[in-house]
User: Fold these one by one.
Assistant:
Number 1:
Amino acid sequence: MKVNIEVIKGKVYVDREFVWGPVVKVHDIGEYSIVEFHPQLFKNCCGTGEYEKERTEFHPYINGKDTCRGFNSLDEALIGTICYKNLGGNERLSDYLRIIFDSQKEGE
């Protein structure tokens, strides 16, 4: 399903709020659109209706098509989206790269 990636005062879909939380920004990089948003707070596996204002998460689209994936940083989202596009929905390369990058950060 193709979506219209337009930010309108905290909304990413025209006439519909972004399901994962209030939109901070949409990062457009060529055919990729990565939505940065404040995630919803959860308690006992249920959404509370409140949002984490201190942190953001990222949800990518390719040519307006939802990848159905989420990431904790813009770097992870870009790498994951490129891997998804080239290797398909079951790719695990982005997960391995995340482990490598995280272990390098810990070693600094």
Number 2:
Amino acid sequence: MFGQPFGSNYTDLQNHYMQQLQAMQQAQQAQQKTQPILDEINREVGSLSLDEQKVLAQMPEYQMAKQTYEAGFMSFLGTKFS
């Protein structure tokens, strides 16, 4: 009757906690991998002249990348603050 005072709920809680911890660690690792890429992109775009930046902004590839980034960012904000 009292063999497992916490029952399987305690084990389930531990497993759930470990899964959350692993997910957070994976997210941190992914963020660390992407940060240097973003820094490199910022440096490269920053080194372009104003005219070069305007031409780049009009390219279809740039427009698609910008829309994808903005949609992802808005989705992140929506889930973060909802």
Number 3:
Amino acid sequence: MAVGAAAGLAAATSGWAVTAAPLPRLLLVEPALVTDTAIGAATRLIGPDLVRQWRDGLRDEVLAAGGAVALVRWDKVIVLMGLAREAGLATQHEQLDRSVFRVRLQDRRRRNA
């Protein structure tokens, strides 16, 4: 399931109930899931070494944005959720396709505010 950047954002944010907390402003996507080159400024491509990328600054970007929505393959879900929890972020995940998941990372302080 490959998606364009605009369709990816719509797919990433659809289906969740609207609450007092705003939707995250940052979209994380694996390159294999993107079909076009029109990737917005608020989109980060997830590389093959997610742990290194997270520790090299992706964690700080997600925290600064108050959270993020990620479209990732099944093998990155557990790693991403573990890294997010380590950083104090709440997580939710939902299977969109056979091997594609949407993971929502949200700052616990903003969620409870």
Number 4:
Amino acid sequence: MTPEMHRNAKHLVTNSEHFEKDCDYFFCQLNEHFDWFKLLDIFRQLAVLALAFALGWKNFLALSNLIFFLSNQNFNDAANEIEAKGYSYLADVMRTGEIKFAESK
């Protein structure tokens, strides 16, 4: 994810200063600690970022199976781990590499 993509993704969700600081923190942590994070496509990066944000850094780091699967680009097993934590939408993004938008009626 380029810095420009990162900035744009943050502004899609909210312009909250606190959110931006938190998002920056988790994005930097993921980039600094995991080489595999840089290799993910943008949607999978966003899914991992959202999960780390939702769980908190310490709890995210405790997901050793998920981290192992991601480091090996085993997205199906990674998605199963995410789903087991109750984040079905993020699991779908991890599994497919796509974000599905709701269709308007």
